[in-house]
Design a protein that fits this description.
This protein is α/β, with parallel strands linked by helices and 393 residues long. The chain contains twelve helices and 14 strands. Among the domains are: 179 residues, BirA Bifunctional Protein, domain 2, CATH 3.30.930.10; 52 residues, 3-Layer(aba) Sandwich (Rossmann fold). An eight-stranded mixed sheet has the order 1-5-6-11-10-9-7-8, sandwiched between helices. It has a three-stranded antiparallel sheet with strand order 2-4-3. Strands 13-12-14 form a three-stranded parallel sheet, with helices on one face. The longest helix has 20 residues. One of its GO terms (cellular component) is cytoplasm.
Length: 393
C-alpha cells in the first residue's frame, strides 16, 4: 500500500466544488419544499450508529458497511441508509407521538463497494418515511409524492416502475416447490439478469404453460388486466391480497393524477429480504440507473420491538444531478474592492447590494495600484479608492 498524496481522498468519495455544491443545495431545497407540502417533517440522525442496532436492522449487507470501534469496544457503522436510523428514532424519541408519522430527511449514507473504481461509497439521499399507515392509500401517497418530486426537479420523460414482492413470491411458490431453485431465480431477478432467469426457469422442469405464465408476469410493462388474468385462479391468499392491493393502488394513483407515470414491472424486487409489498424505482429517459427507489417494509420495526407498517422512498441525489443538470438561477456577482480608509463605506454599500439580491464579496486593496487577478471572477467590479473619506455603516 502506497502512502496517499496530500491532495488525494479515499476511493469512492468525492468533493463538491462551488458550482456542483450549489446545484446539490438547490435540488435539496426543491425536494424539501415538495416534502413539506405533503406534511412531512424533517428529522436528522447521527452519522455513526451501533452495528448491533441500526446496522443489523439495515437492508444493506454487512459486507458493504464501514465499521469502526469506539473506546468501549462497541462496533459502530457509518450509517448505510436512513430508514433504519429513523426507525430507531420513531421507537424511542417519538414513541408517544400519534400515528401515522410523516418524516423526511436529507443525509449522506456510506456503503463500501466490491469494485470501487468509478463507483461512489458515499451517497447523498433525500427521502420520506410514512410510518404507522398500512394499505394501498399509504403506498399510493409515497408513489405520488415521488412523481411530484421528479416533476419539481424538472426531470424529463421519467417513469416509475412498480413491482410487488408479495405477489411475485406467492405466484412463484405456487409453481415451484424446490426452495433452492426458487432462491436462485429470485437472486437473478434481484440482479436484473433476465437472461439467466429465463435460462434457469427452463431447467427446473416446469410445464410449458407455467413457464410462460411466470415469464409473462415478470415482463416489464405487463398490464393490470394481464395480472388479473394470471392470478385469477390462484389459491394463494398472498397472491389474492396482493392483486387486490394493486387494483386499489392504481385507483388511488388515478385520483392523484399520476397513474400514467407508473408502469408495472413485477420482475422488479429490490431486496427480497427487506421489502414486504410494493417496491418501485424511478427512471429518467436514457438513464440506466434509478433516480429514486422505495417501497413497503413492514418487517423493519420488529428489530426495534415494535410492529409498525411503514413505507417510503429515497432520492439518489448523485443520480438526479447526473440526469438533470439543473443550474441555479443566475445572480449577478459583484466584487467590491476598497482601500483601508473606506472600509465602513464599503461594508455599508455591500450590505445594501446584498439586500437588493446581488452576491457581493468584499476585498481590501493593497496599497499598490490596480485590481488583483481575482477581480476577473466577478460579473461586475466596484472600487472605492483611497481618499474619499468614510461613509456610515
Amino acid at each position: 500500500m502506497t502512502k496517499p498524496l496530500i491532495f488525494e481522498k479515499p476511493t469512492g468519495f468525492r468533493d463538491f466544488p462551488p458550482p456542483l455544491a450549489a446545484r446539490k443545495r438547490m435540488m435539496e431545497e426543491l425536494i424539501q419544499t415538495e416534502f413539506a407540502k405533503w406534511g412531512y417533517a424533517e428529522v436528522g440522525t447521527p452519522t455513526l450508529e451501533f452495528y448491533e442496532t441500526v446496522g443489523q436492522a439495515s437492508a444493506i449487507a454487512e459486507s458493504r458497511m464501514f465499521k469502526c470501534m469506539d473506546r468501549e469496544g462497541n462496533t459502530l457503522v457509518l450509517r448505510p441508509d436512513q430508514t433504519a436510523p429513523i426507525a430507531r428514532v420513531v421507537t424511542s424519541l417519538l414513541k408517544h407521538e400519534p400515528l401515522p408519522l410523516r418524516l423526511c430527511y436529507h443525509a449522506n449514507v456510506f456503503r463500501a463497494q466490491e469494485n470501487e473504481a468509478g463507483r461512489n461509497s458515499e451517497f447523498f439521499q433525500s427521502g420520506v418515511e410514512l410510518v404507522g399507515e398500512a394499505g394501498a392509500e399509504a403506498d399510493a401517497e409515497v408513489i405520488a409524492l415521488s412523481v411530484k418530486v421528479l416533476t419539481a426537479c424538472r426531470v424529463d420523460s421519467f417513469q416509475i416502475a412498480l413491482g410487488h414482492v408479495g405477489l411475485l413470491e406467492g405466484f412463484l411458490r405456487e409453481r415451484i416447490e424446490d426452495d433452492e431453485a426458487l432462491t436462485r431465480l429470485k437472486e437473478q431477478l434481484g440482479a436484473r439478469n433476465l437472461v439467466e432467469f429465463r435460462k434457469q426457469l427452463g431447467e427446473i422442469g416446469l410445464k410449458e404453460s407455467q413457464r410462460i405464465e411466470i415469464e409473462t408476469l415478470v415482463q416489464a410493462g405487463t398490464t393490470l388486466d394481464q395480472i388479473k388474468r394470471l392470478t385469477s385462479g390462484s389459491r394463494s391468499l398472498a397472491v389474492q391480497e396482493a392483486g387486490q392491493h394493486l387494483e386499489e393502488l392504481f385507483e388511488y394513483l388515478d385520483a392523484y393524477g399520476c397513474a400514467g407515470a407508473v408502469t408495472l414491472d413485477l420482475g422488479l424486487v429490490g431486496s427480497l429480504d427487506y421489502y414486504t409489498g410494493v417496491y418501485f424505482e424511478g427512471y429518467a429517459a436514457g438513464q440506466g440507473f434509478p433516480l429514486l427507489s422505495g417501497g413497503r417494509y413492514d418487517g423493519l420495526y420488529r428489530h426495534f420491538r415494535r410492529f409498525l407498517p411503514a413505507t417510503g422512498f429515497a432520492v439518489q441525489l448523485d443520480h438526479l444531478l447526473a440526469a438533470r443538470p439543473l443550474r441555479p438561477e443566475p445572480r449577478e456577482t459583484i466584487g467590491l474592492f476598497y482601500q483601508a480608509d473606506r472600509k465602513k463605506e464599503a461594508l455599508s454599500q455591500a450590505r445594501q447590494l446584498r439586500e437588493e439580491g446581488y452576491a457581493v464579496a468584499t476585498h481590501l486593496l493593497a496599497e499598490e495600484d490596480g485590481l488583483p487577478e481575482i477581480a476577473k471572477r466577478y460579473d461586475r467590479v466596484v472600487t472605492l479608492p483611497e481618499g474619499k473619506g468614510e461613509g456610515g455603516c
